Structure formats: C-alpha cells, structure tokens
Amino acid sequence: MSVPPPKSTVTCHPHFYYPNGSIIFWAEDTLYKLVRDTLEKDSEVFRDMLSLDVHFVGPPRTEGTIDEDPIILPLTVEQFDLYLEVSGG
Fold first, then answer.
1. Which of 24, 36, 74, 82 has the fewest CB atoms lying closer than 10 Å?
2. DSSP characters for 23-73?
3. What is the pLDDT of residues 22-61, one digit of tens each?
C-alpha cells in the first residue's frame, strides 16, 4: 500500500478539491476533496467502498476525512480526473 508523500509535495486538485467536500482521496501527488453523497449516488463501487466504514469497530477513524489521512487510490491523476469528468464528479 502506498503512503502519501509529505504535505509539502502534495497539491490540491485545481478543479476537484471542493471546500464543501466531505471525503478526501489521494492519487499520485494530488488530493481530491469530493462530496461523498454524490459519489455514493453515482457509483456502486464508491457506495460499497465507503459503506465499509459503517461496520468498523474500534477507535474513530480519520481516513478520508482529513488531508493528512486521505483514502489512497491505486489510480493516476489522469485516470481519476477522467472518471470524475465523465461521471460529473
């Protein structure tokens, strides 16, 4: 599994980092802050992936809720950008 690089080398995506976003992803050196409800509504894959947290038992998790602990995607920026452009992300 990849580990995000130090914050100094990470950039927020110029189009897909929404101030009102509620879920944070990392692809390569780029952070995306998206609206969770939109992702879950438009994608069965994201709906299933994000529902896994509902059944988590243990201390509170921060994954995907703060820039320092994004959900790491095994995608390139180009791949995720294309998905978001096509899906209306």
1. 74
2. EEEEETTEEEEE-HHHHHHH-HHHHHHHHGGGG--SSPP-TTTSTTSPEEP
3. 999 999 999 999 998 888 887 888 777 777 665 556 666 7
